[in-house]
């Protein structure tokens, strides 16, 4: 057996040298920061409706509409508006909060349920352990797409 030179390098040191790890970490950090600072990042109220301007195009697709002298900056909606005239960028920024909460709740809930079931199987042993193990084997045999459909 030959050992690779990286075998004795700690895992964290190898991860920190990987560009993909840095890229993924940066994206995740930006999403979390966007969710946390949504009230300060969002250009408009995500629930405010302007029924006179539904389905506006993004500002870069509207010639001559990019800057406004009276506001001193961008005027219009950076990503356009939806069918009720709500700003799409603001809705995306605030939507990051909901997505983050759902992701954390799902991860925490599955960890708690999995830990409780595993502890019960380990404590009871015997038939209970065998039954739970077979049930988990069946669960893991299904493709994730099929489980999502079900």
Explain how this protein is built:
With 150 residues, the chain is mainly alpha-helical. Helices cover 58% and strands 3% of the residues. The protein contains six helices and two strands, in the order αααββααα. The chain has helices spanning 11-16, 19-36, 38-41, 88-124, 126-141, 144-149; strands at residues 67-68, 73-74. It has a two-stranded antiparallel ribbon. β1 (67-68) and β2 form a beta hairpin. α2 crosses α4 (88-124) and α4 (88-124) packs antiparallel against α5. The radius of gyration is 25 Å and the shape is elongated. The two termini are 46 Å apart. The mean pLDDT is 86.
Q: Alpha-carbon distance between the termini?
A: 46 Å
Encode the helix/strand succession as letters.
Answer: HHHEEHHH
> What about the largest sheet?
2 strands, antiparallel
Q: From the alpha carbons, calculate the radius of gyration and give it in angstroms.
A: 25 Å
Strand elements, count: 2
Residue stretches low in confidence (pLDDT < 50, at least 5 long) are none
β-sheet strand percentage: under 5%
- The average pLDDT score comes to 86
Q: How many helical elements?
A: 6
Helical content class: 55-70%
Question: Within the largest sheet, what's the order of strands?
Answer: 1-2
Taken from the alpha-carbon principal axes, the silhouette is elongated
Quaternary organisation? single chain
Alpha-beta content class: mainly alpha
Based on the model shown, name its key terms.
150 residues; mainly alpha; 3% strand
Summary of the model, kept short:
Helix content is 58%, strand content 3%. The protein has six helices and two strands.
């Amino acid at each position: 057996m030959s050992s690779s030179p990286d075998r004795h390098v700690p895992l964290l040191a190898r991860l920190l040298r990987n560009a993909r790890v840095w890229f993924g970490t940066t994206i995740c950090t930006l999403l979390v920061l966007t969710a946390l600072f949504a009230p300060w990042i969002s250009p408009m109220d995500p629930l405010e409706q302007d029924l006179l301007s539904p389905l506006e195009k993004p500002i870069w697709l509207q010639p001559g509409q990019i800057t406004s002298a009276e506001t001193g900056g961008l005027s219009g909606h950076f990503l356009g508006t939806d069918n009720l005239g709500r700003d799409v960028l603001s809705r995306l920024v605030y939507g990051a909060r909901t997505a983050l909460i759902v992701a954390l709740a799902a991860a925490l809930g599955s960890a708690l349920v999995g830990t409780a079931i595993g502890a019960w199987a380990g404590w009871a042993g015997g038939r209970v352990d065998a039954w739970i193990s077979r049930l988990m084997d069946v669960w893991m045999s299904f493709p994730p797409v099929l489980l999502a459909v079900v």
